[in-house]
């Protein structure tokens, strides 16, 4: 009998407690169960210094790009004999996209992240170049070792095409930063000053960089490389749009934005479609890629999955090093 009375009292107490829970408390409990809260709590328990966050995140992206680039060259050399006779289109594009897309989109991610950062544009450009140069150096070294000869002229065409992609990626990142309140930032401590808006000075610095790049392109002569420059430039524009959308959608405080993921996926599909259509028209001498739109779309879907998977790895790296996207309109001034 006493046990029954005790159980009844316990049940009544728990019922009263549940009935006393407010809507605000329920909302707090739900937020504490989210992945965003667990990530924020983990970052508080394991804080990084500002320099560790900055250099660690950028260096990790650079190492990833270098590893993927060298692996691409090595695998292509090892499987060169298997690809002498061009197989079916879907098999060829699966092979090409599996090897070439990851380092290519990490290139756009590195440049986009560096230029979506908040310091002066010239400093961002410097960091972007420092991030991509090891990968290009690894690419050149692997090619020269595979060919068993040192010929700098072999690297002229890929260097110009990648430089074009660098410039278009930089432009997109700065434009997004200028016309939206969002910017990318490493961990700056709890009392950091608010980040100022992107001003016209950023465009003057970008114009100066473009002028230098234009002089370089004219000096080396790029008339024969116009098609490649257009393709790489287009890839840079589309993939960097996906990068900025993904960064805003995944690294902002609070819950992730599904719209960022959706827009990034659409742009990733568009970027893959450009690559697949160009290869369809050039490698197989198709009169028009539209005549085989179903095959191009199917190959592009696989390419989009590869791109989004690669981007997910890059975003995870930045999150581990406590980078975040900040809405400059909602910043709290430091005390």
How are the SSEs ordered, and which strands pair?
Elements: H1 2-20, H2 23-32, H3 35-45, H4 50-78, H5 89-115, H6 121-147, H7 156-179, E1 182-185, H8 200-220, H9 226-251, H10 258-282, H11 293-320, E2 324-327
Antiparallel strand pairs: 1-2
What does this structure look like?
The chain crosses the membrane at residues 54-76, 88-118, 125-146, 166-187, 199-220, 226-248, 260-281, 293-318. Keywords: Membrane, Transmembrane, Transmembrane helix. The chain contains 11 helices and 2 strands, in the order αααααααβααααβ. The protein has helices at residues 2-20, 23-32, 35-45, 50-78, 89-115, 121-147, 156-179, 200-220, 226-251, 258-282, 293-320, and strands at residues 182-185, 324-327. A two-stranded antiparallel sheet has the order 1-2. The longest helix is centred in the N-terminal third of the chain and has 29 residues, at 50-78.
